[in-house]
Write a structure and sequence with these properties.
This protein is of the alpha/beta class and 306 residues long. The protein has one domain: Thiamin diphosphate (ThDP)-binding fold, Pyr/PP domains (Rossmann fold, 3-Layer(aba) Sandwich), CATH 3.40.50.970. 39% of the residues lie in helices and 11% in strands. Strand 2, helix 7 and strand 3 form a beta-alpha-beta unit. Helix 2 packs antiparallel against helix 11, helix 4 packs across helix 10 and helix 6 packs parallel to helix 7. The longest helix is centred in the N-terminal third of the chain and has 22 residues. It is globular, with a radius of gyration of 18 Å. The chain starts with 10 loop residues before the first helix and ends in a 10-residue tail after the last helix.
């Protein structure tokens, strides 16, 4: 396997070493972009090694996960607790994009990076869809079944209010996933109960496993729909780290004002790898050996491969 030159003292690695000793460190966009490159390498290598998984959405959401975990969230990876008291809590609803989440959790210090080599293998904690029964740090709900994550996020957000915990709840959902009715039940619930410590995001890439969302079930005017359901709505290019940081900062300013917050995040499925970008065909298939090498050639190794 071809690898790029790796410097032990690279800015991204120096940051990660410090990250494991503290919480809520805000880093520059250059450092975040460097981490994104390594996360994308992890994604394509993970799905290639087991010849299964979901690289498309994982690649498209890389900037979001990196911005969240390395710029915004307050958390303590070395003392993970399910209740998340005193921490920001994230729920991944579209659990099939687990490769990107696992990579970010590992590089954040929740578990050893070398564990990424066990993705989808027998007896691993890194299952294809995140699960809780084996106690993987960083994961608080199983999210193999689509549509359920917002309900869990609402419950956690209400618990924080009861506990007078000022930290926030974040959740991520797929645009194909919001064809599930439970999403809209949760949306009504969040608005009705003024769950204003919740920031949800939709990965709006226009693709799902059966094809473009416009051909499967058109989503219509998402901004108008979420506003009609009583949410504050923001929009962003989710593959532009600078714009993403700006919009998440703005979303945080909207919390505590009586409404849940929704970020409509436009992304490109497969972003970062030219032959995977913009098509549903890479929603749930793995690259072969040749394709892996083509992908890795586009993604500099910045933190060291596992």
């Amino acid at each position: 396997m071809t690898t790029a030159t790796h410097s032990p003292s690279s800015p991204a690695e120096t940051f990660l070493q410090a990250r494991q000793k503290t919480i809520n460190i805000v880093k520059s966009t250059d450092e975040l972009k460097s981490i994104c490159s390594q996360v994308r390498r992890d994604i394509v290598r993970m799905v290639h090694a087991c010849q299964s998984g979901h690289p498309g959405g994982s690649l498209g959401c890389t900037e979001f996960f990196v911005a969240l975990y390395f710029h915004f969230l307050k958390y303590d990876p070395k003392n993970f607790k399910m209740d998340g008291i005193g921490e920001d809590v994230f729920f991944l609803s579209n659990g099939h994009i687990s490769p990107v989440w696992y990579s970010v959790l590992a590089h954040s210090g929740y578990f050893p990076v070398k564990d990424l080599a066990t993705f989808r293998k027998l007896n691993t904690r890194l299952q294809g869809h995140p699960a809780t029964h084996e106690g993987l740090p960083g994961v608080r709900i199983a999210s193999g079944s689509l549509g359920q994550g917002m309900s869990a996020a609402c419950g956690a957000a209400l618990a924080k209010k009861l506990n007078k915990d000022p930290q926030l709840i974040f959740s991520l959902h797929g645009d194909g996933e919001i064809q599930e009715g439970q999403i809209w039940e949760a949306a009504m619930f969040a608005s009705a109960h003024k769950i204003d410590n919740l920031i949800s995001t939709i990965d709006w890439n226009g693709q799902q496993i059966d094809g473009p969302t416009d051909k499967v079930i058109p989503l219509g005017d998402l901004k108008a729909k979420w506003q009609a359901f009583g949410w504050d709505v923001l929009q962003v290019n989710g593959n532009n780290i600078e714009e993403l940081i700006s919009v998440i900062e703005e979303a945080k300013k909207h919390t505590g004002k009586g409404k849940p917050v929704m970020i409509l995040m436009k992304t490109t499925m497969g972003h970062g790898v030219d032959f995977m970008a913009g098509t549903h065909k890479w929603h749930g298939i793995a690259p072969n050996d040749e394709q892996l090498q083509k992908a890795l050639a586009q993604l500099p190794e910045t933190l060291g491969d596992y």
